[in-house]
Design brief:
single chain; alpha+beta; six-stranded antiparallel β-sheet; 30 strands; globular
Length: about 500
């Protein structure tokens, strides 16, 4: 963002606030005023990591921000982002949304390379305490101090396989890159005196930026005092994640020109036509089930009501890092309104069933609160396959729809009836052609070929041994908010 006198760190902070739903484990911001990069990060929510005092120390016109949700690698401070690396004459700070599937190959490449840092020739390495592919990519970029960061990116990006949206910076320039399939969203916005790159359009709204366009699959952007320039590092083969429409994205975000809220309401209408039920009330599982419940009520003519109260201060149970916390979170998060649901035949609309824990607990709570019948309607098809592109679906064995029929799932969760939207109906609701969507979690058809099973796994390469050190390789699915202003004062990595 080119914005003389602008408090860019605060803009990044509020941009991350808009993207808090995409990651709740850690948060961080890197800034530069043209002479050096300062990174401040810690475990926790955006509001827990930063306050006025912290933000006051982050001065400059160029910033990259990140919220982390780990899909591979441990949830530790060392893996919090942005990741920082020294180069021969400066530094790099990088944030990542996605999941690489060839991390083992990249780790070997980094280990075998030699890097000239200043006047010293060093063996290639990645931070020994880290376990993320983000750290590894940053190392590969820093391995080329004799070339510009832009040239290094054009060399490194074609080597990466999987889903990635990167925002990264040196002291003077902001960069953004999106994988050739464009699996995760990434958009560009314009401020009066600058540019913004973010995971969702909702982050543009909160900082007052106007939407310009999506970063194209296979595109590398650079922004500095000369403005925005762009070039292609790979041929595009669009395969946007359909689960962004189902759950991940905010309803007030637009993806591929389609409002996520509108798509979800449309799915609810289609679900009502596809699987009607005789009932007294339609209630949503807030928040991601709400638009589909509205659509179901509109189409069916059954009254809509809020039958469940959500505690706004409890995070998304889906992205908690352990099963124990996930199960506890279900009870902390939702509570039934007994006076609304007692004696009623309910249609309960939710976005998905992954492991079955949430639905089982919900049905039990509703029956305990006096519901006469509980009919569950799901605004996505059965999730049968794990995601290797940035969603923590874990193994097939943990997915309740793997090996069970719809009626067997109904019995498992205790519902009177259960129905899912069909994949064809969901695709039509997005208005994106089926061939431009990734539907792997529903179909098992992965748009980017996966390595052998032994080369995959959440903690696969933690403790990866190298000649001079060891490192873990993992990944993240996160919120990115990146701002650049002019040409990029302190060189430091800060831990509170």
């Amino acid at each position: 963002m080119w914005a003389p006198g602008e408090e860019v760190a605060k803009l990044a902070y509020f941009g991350l606030y808009a993207l808090q739903h995409r990651g709740q484990e850690s948060a961080g911001i890197a800034v530069s005023d043209g002479d050096g990069i300062v990174v401040y990060k810690d475990m926790g929510l955006v509001a827990q990591v930063f306050d006025e005092r912290h933000l006051a120390t982050l001065t400059g016109h160029l910033a990259v921000g990140h919220t982390r949700y780990s899909t591979t690698g441990s949830s530790t401070w060392e893996n919090a982002q942005p990741v920082f690396r020294h180069t021969g004459d400066g530094g790099i700070a990088l944030g990542h949304n996605g999941n690489l599937i060839n991390s083992g190959e990249l780790a070997r490449l980094a280990a075998e390379s030699e890097v000239e840092r200043g006047d010293v020739l060093l063996p290639g390495f990645a931070t020994p305490d880290a376990s993320s592919d983000t750290d590894l990519v940053t190392e590969l970029l820093a391995n080329h101090p004799s070339r510009s960061l832009e040239k290094a990116a054009l060399d490194v990006l074609p080597l990466l396989q999987g889903a990635f949206c990167f925002v990264f910076m040196d002291e003077t320039t902001l960069y953004a890159a999106r994988d050739p399939q464009g699996i995760r969203p990434l958009v560009v916005g314009r401020l009066e005196r600058g540019w913004v790159v973010a995971s969702e359009t909702a982050a543009l709204d909160i900082v007052g930026a106007s939407y310009v366009r999506e970063v194209e699959p296979g595109e590398l952007l650079a922004v500095d005092e000369h403005g925005l320039r762009t070039q292609k590092f790979a041929e595009p083969d669009p395969k946007g994640c359909i689960f962004e429409y189902v759950y991940l994205a905010r309803p007030d975000t637009s993806i591929a020109g389609r409002s996520v809220h509108t798509a979800r309401v449309d799915v609810g209408r289609r679900l009502a036509r596809q699987d009607p039920v005789d009932a007294d009330l339609v209630i949503p599982v807030p928040e991601s089930g709400t638009p589909a419940a509205v659509g179901y009520a509109q189409e069916s003519g059954i009254p809509y009501a809020q039958g469940l109260v959500k505690n706004a201060y409890v995070g998304r149970t889906f992205i908690q890092p352990s099963q124990t916390i996930r199960q506890l979170g279900i009870r902390l998060k939702l509570n039934p309104l007994r006076e609304v649901i007692a004696g009623k035949r309910l249609v309960v609309v939710d976005d998905s069933i992954v492991r079955g824990n949430t639905q089982r607990a919900l049905v039990r709570m509703l029956r305990e609160a006096g519901a006469a019948e509980v009919h569950v309607r799901i605004s996505s098809p059965p999730v049968k396959w794990p995601c290797f592109y940035g969603i923590d679906f874990a193994t097939r064995a943990e997915l309740i729809a793997n090996g069970l029929s719809v009626d067997e799932i109904r019995q498992s969760v205790g519902a009177d009836s259960l129905a899912y939207i069909t994949l064809d109906e969901l695709v039509e609701a997005t208005t994106v052609p089926a061939e431009r969507l990734c539907t792997a979690c529903f179909t098992g058809t992965y748009p980017i070929a996966l390595p052998e099973p032994e080369a995959l796994g959440k903690h696969l390469l933690e403790g990866y041994e190298r000649e001079s050190t060891s490192a873990g390789v993992g990944s993240d699915a996160d919120g990115l908010a990146s701002l650049t202003a002019a040409t990029g004062a302190t060189d430091a990595l800060s831990r509170p």
